[in-house]
TrEMBL record:
Sequence similarity: Belongs to the transposase 11 family.
Pfam family, one: DUF4372
Key words, A-Z: DNA recombination, DNA-binding, Transposition
InterPro entries: DUF4372, RNaseH-like_sf, Transpos_IS4, Transposase_11
Name of the featured protein: IS4 family transposase
Keyword match Transferase: no
BP term (GO), one: DNA transposition
Lineage: superkingdom: Bacteria
Origin species: Fluviibacter phosphoraccumulans
UniProt-listed PANTHER family: TRANSPOSASE INSL FOR INSERTION SEQUENCE ELEMENT IS186A-RELATED (PTHR33258)
Amino acid sequence: MNRGKAVFAQLLGQVPFSHFEHLVDVYQANKGIRHFSAWNQFLCLMYAQLTRRSGLRDLVACLNAQRSRLYHIGLRGPVTRSTLADANERRDYRLFEALGQRLIASVLTLYEDADLGLGLSGPVYALDSTTIDLCLSLFPWADFRQTKAAIKAHVLLDLRAAIPVFVSLTSGKVHDVKILDQLTLPTGSLLVADRAYLDFKRLYRLNSLSVGFVLRTKANTLTQVCGHRPILDQPGVVSDQMVMLVTPLSLVGYPDPLRRVVFVDPESAKELVFLTNRFDLAATTIARLYKHRWQIELFFKWLKQNLAVKHFFGNSVNAVKSQIWCAICAYLVVLITIRRLHLPVSPQILLHLIETNIFEKISLDQLVNNAISGDYEPDVANQLILL
């Protein structure tokens, strides 16, 4: 009989429990609570993420069906909808946000040797947001449109390993460009973003901090050419120029020269125009950097397809933010597990294996090995012939 830890318990072992208890004290998360602790709530929300539960009733029913197994990881006694709903409404979501920040630090340490293959010395980040639609009658605080509610997740993604190093959750009405005011990027880093973040005053602040950026321009961005750069042996590059902004307000916001690169994608024949403050990189590298920005779109798609971030277990701001931060924690725990155990699978495959074997007492590396070794075509010649 296998007396080892269940798959769920092995994943929870990647969470620094002592630091979690420290955060519980900092945010007084267990103050006045007798039975349903912060750790119990975290267990429930992590279970919901790893098994993709679609609602509070569904989550509670599945938890209580596995009561004997949950006992061994610290969840003792039945879970009621009212108890879990109250915890989601009242317990400060910043507890899970702070835990997420600790897990982000752990992931960055584990993936510090990852490389984009572009010969860049500093980290490269992509900035974007994704909108999660909500029902206006149930989430009236989530301002978006006259007949629609939504919440936005603004994410800064480290492109070396798709690590969300910064996450800000706002109502859907908050404009993307305002998030630039909240960013503190390390000197020598590089930011890649779409046209929504083209604000020259904010970009000049990044430039003054020795932070590079690569952005697509808008159609109405006026510039004056003040120099040309050679474009020989750079496939797809149409022009590489030094420019100054023309519009008075833009020029006041960004008084220094910029670099304007025009690139035609050989696959789609689409013309892309970039503005950057990095004059030391090849024009093709600028284009490749922007192509890597697509990783953040894939990250948003992965999050929505593989974790519980579309159906919420509470209607308050606190409940929604708690659930989204626990989804991010689940993603980070999967990344940590893959790196520490050297598992030869993608995060999506590992998450699916966890979902279907969450209470099996089998080591994670053996679970992955069984899944990989079973991926073969049978030899038809060795099959019995049935008459």
